[in-house]
Amino acid sequence: MAAQTNQPMVEARGLGRTFRTRTGDVEAVAGVDFAVQAREVVGFLGPNGAGKTTTQRMLSTLLAPTSGEATVAGCDLRRNPVGVRRRIGYVAQGGSTNPNALCDEELVLQAQLYGLGAEEAGRRAADICARLDLADLGARQIKTLSGGQRRRLDVALGLVHGPGLVFLDEPSTGLDPQSRANLWTHIRGLRDELGTTVFLTTHYLDEADALCDRILIIDHGRIVAEGTPDQLKRRISGDLVIFTVGPEAERARGVLAGRPGVREAVPHDGTVRVTVERGEEGALPLMRALDAAGIPVASMQIARPTLDDVFLTLTGHSLRDQPAAEGRRPS
Amino acid sequence: MSAWREARLVFRQQLRLSWRQPVWAVLALIQPLLYLALFGPLLRPLTHTPGFPPGSSWSVFVPGLLIQLAMFGTMFVGFGLIAEMRYGVVERMRVTPASRMALLMGRVMRDAVVLVGQAVLLIAIATVFGLRAPLLGLAAVLVIVLLLGISLSSFSYAAGLKLRSEDALAQLLNSLAVPLLLRSGILLPMSLAPRWLYLLSRLNPFSHVVDGARAAVRGDFGSGSIAVGFIAALGLAIAGVAVGTRTFHRETN
Ligand SMILES: Nc1ncnc2c1ncn2[C@@H]1O[C@H](COP(=O)(O)OP(=O)(O)OP(=O)(O)O)[C@@H](O)[C@H]1O
Ligand SMILES: [Mg+2]
Hints:
The structure holds two protein chains of two kinds.
Chain A: E1 10-21, E2 24-36, E3 41-45, H1 52-59, E4 67-72, E5 75-76, H2 81-87, E6 88-91, H3 103-113, H4 118-131, H5 147-159, E7 165-169, H6 177-194, E8 197-202, H7 205-211, E9 214-219, E10 222-227, H8 229-237, E11 239-244, H9 249-256, E12 262-268, E13 271-276, H10 279-292, E14 299-303, H11 307-315, H12 322-325
Chain B: H1 2-20, H2 22-38, H3 40-43, H4 57-74, H5 77-87, H6 89-94, H7 100-129, H8 135-163, H9 166-183, H10 195-202, H11 205-217, H12 225-251
The complex binds adenosine-5'-triphosphate and magnesium ion (MG).
């Protein structure tokens, strides 16, 4: 392995890609800087068209960057693309198999193209099939597999040679909850048992939250935030403290708005929803303030924002209402 | 050396895939066989026309059919590559360290093997119809067919990779195939044509390939035609592989 232990597995410096199209240039990735450390599971989160796939395709040598540079698994992306290819695995967003081929055939071939001998390739193929619940499907033609089975095969094809670094582009698309959980277990196992570094993209906030050590949020080709799931949730949206105050909601808002640590206070349906930096510490002083103003509080609730809320705050649109997103582009 | 190994791996996989759908390889034989059955007998009276090359009508007609098979059997392989690109298979292979040339040549080798199999079958059937040819001549014609197949399949892959669309590839092939077919004297020898057309056809390397194939089948080892045809076919093969490899490098790097 060319990568030294304290060197990042992926380091992008001003990496960018502009596509020339008939209708003009599309700046898909606008010069991003980031690093992925060895043994880290990093999630790349962003709405459709944000530039996730383009970034991953550049890092896996499939697409030439139009600006910047990167080091991947210890190899310079531009000068040593073959070195990069030797050390990585890549699972594309859109599938990777010939419908007329058999599962085993494709897996063994893929492992052999990475230089493994036939026997070793066969063993690895069987192993990855067992881990991803494909064991009985080896001799099946790929066109007879279900969508989720085919997706698991795509993932298996990217992992069969045991790479130290893998790029997974929306690996869990189309998987049922059980297969998704199984995939998560496998990805965690890769990191914990084999020390594999994983860089994945996802639309599923719960997936990023549950699986990733760190998250990069990308929008319009730029990285707009970066941190652990907890950090992001805390830093960007703060916590939500909800007081049930009945008819006094409007007055409660007046009391709480502008107090130190309060970002926002919104009356809503007999409650006042207050956004604070840290819910656990911020709630009590607010409670006392309401008390002092003579507003009775029926109940109090602290809610952690979901990554979806984070997303909304950062990009101005929610992950789940993408069609509406276009109209709300920050100018 | 690892490129050779990789090419063989791709070749084996491609061959398995072809084997699984033998219908295509058989369909490609239908046209030449129909020509053989329906068109061949028509040629017999022509053998006495001035300008008709020496030899029986079969030894003039069958080499033309073989070259036609080589052209039409391999010209369209680019469509298969476009399908593979759509499936994501090409990208999956590109992300491995395998040599780009191997990814191309593995496929070309499959096409060449399928083609030679078809050619042998066609020769066998033509023998039943009445073709008589020396074994050495038949071997020579198979080599020419092989080289031509390598050339056209490489060109076709390059075009498919570059155009990335079935429609565009179909238009390109349509505009190339018919003139090539008519002008190279595949069906009727160009020696029957008026002098200006004959001279024009000499500029087309395919017509030399066809002449070489005819000379081989009638056992005319003394004339230079076989050598010229072989060199033309070899030149086309080298050009095809060079263009194909370059395109694979360029489009996939
Ligand atoms: N080959 C191409 N030619 C022109 N534009 C392209 C090309 N590939 C991608 N784009 C554009 O670049 C932008 C980023 O696309 P990309 O595929 O990286 O997005 P993504 O974040 O992966 O989105 P999704 O979540 O939908 O997969 C989009 O606006 C897309 O239309
Ligand atoms: Mg994508």
